[in-house]
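$ ./design --mode recover --in tokens.txt
reading tokens...
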């Protein structure tokens, strides 16, 4: 009987404290739903490519601007926010952004030909419809968890930001 009570107590404590333990982030550094990603997608890259692009809408649900300083994903070596710069002669180049500012109660759009995510150094194969975690931190070291869905934009008709 004592073993059963001890086991139940252990299970109860493990379940009720696992979130804080598993995330490893103190509550003041967990941004929760202050930033959300709407229609977040990562395009499947052609075979042999080690770079993927991502798109979606980042929404700020707070009354203050949020400055995102870093992005990372456990699936890629490097995750960056990029903008496109176009010259007068029609050439385009990507610019790595050191920060992305989401206006208070506003949103910014990551889309093809504009602001976008670059995922570099794929650590494993991706599967269609798989959810990929992206973790971003702001200038106060508050963390936001975003999920992006892997799609094959060449094989399907998607109605997002294009």
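writing sequence...
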């Amino acid at each position: 009987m004592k073993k059963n009570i001890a086991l139940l107590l252990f299970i109860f404590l493990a379940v009720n404290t696992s979130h804080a333990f598993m995330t490893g982030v103190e509550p003041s550094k967990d941004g929760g739903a202050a930033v959300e990603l709407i229609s977040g997608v990562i395009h499947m890259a052609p075979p042999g490519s080690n770079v993927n692009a991502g798109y979606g809408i980042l929404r700020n649900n707070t009354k203050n601007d949020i400055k995102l300083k870093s992005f990372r994903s456990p699936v890629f070596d490097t995750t960056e926010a990029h903008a496109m710069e176009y010259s007068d002669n029609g050439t385009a180049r990507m610019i790595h952004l050191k920060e992305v500012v989401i206006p208070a109660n506003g949103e910014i759009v990551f889309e093809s030909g504009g602001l976008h995510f670059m995922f570099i150094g794929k650590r494993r194969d991706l599967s269609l419809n798989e959810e990929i975690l992206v973790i971003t931190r702001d200038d106060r070291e508050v963390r936001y968890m975003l999920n992006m869905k892997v799609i094959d934009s060449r094989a399907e008709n998607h109605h997002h930001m294009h």
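exit 0
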